[in-house]
Write a structure and sequence with these properties.
- Helix 2 runs antiparallel to helix 3.
- The protein has a 5-stranded mixed sheet with strand order 1-2-5-4-3.
- It is 36% helix and 21% strand.
- It is globular and about 35 Å long.
- It has one domain: Beta Polymerase, domain 2, CATH 3.30.460.
- Strand 3 and strand 4 form a beta hairpin.
- The protein is of the alpha+beta class.
Length: 138
């Protein structure tokens, strides 16, 4: 992908996220997942659709080991960037779908098959997508 680092939250992507009301930690989480080879990373603006969370960060890994590595990196980078830890983490035991609940946003880390089965992007297709990658010129 085109990320230059998981903690960079300045520039046009941060401005778009901020304008939409999406927590900047979502950008950090997406870039952290990218740093650990998370696939098809998406940030969905859920603020107008869901009411209980401002955003979803969705990614997947190829196996349970990679899923757990992505979860660890997201937790670390969000903690370093903002001092925040998840309120709870569910699904680590089998790591087919790990949910990291930060209160105002959720991070979903799937294994490939589980992501295809649950297809959250299709379920929430009305949710605007927020760009997260740092432009190559940054």
């Amino acid at each position: 992908m085109t990320s230059t680092g998981p903690t960079a939250t300045t520039g046009p992507t941060a401005e778009i996220a901020q304008a939409r009301g999406v927590p900047e930690e979502c950008l950090v989480a997406a870039r952290a997942a990218d740093a650990k080879s998370g696939e098809e990373i998406v940030i969905l603006d859920m603020g107008d659709l869901l009411g209980i969370a401002e955003a979803f960060v969705i990614t997947n890994g190829r196996n349970s080991r990679q899923v757990k590595t992505i979860v660890d990196e997201v937790e670390l980078q969000v903690k370093l960037a903002s001092g925040r830890s998840p309120v709870r983490i569910e699904g680590l035991a089998d790591a087919t779908w790990v949910l990291m609940d930060y209160g105002d946003f959720l991070v979903h880390v799937f294994m490939d098959e589980a992501r295809a089965y649950y297809d959250l992007e299709h379920l929430w297709s009305d949710a605007p997508r927020i760009p997260w990658a740092v432009p190559a010129s940054a």
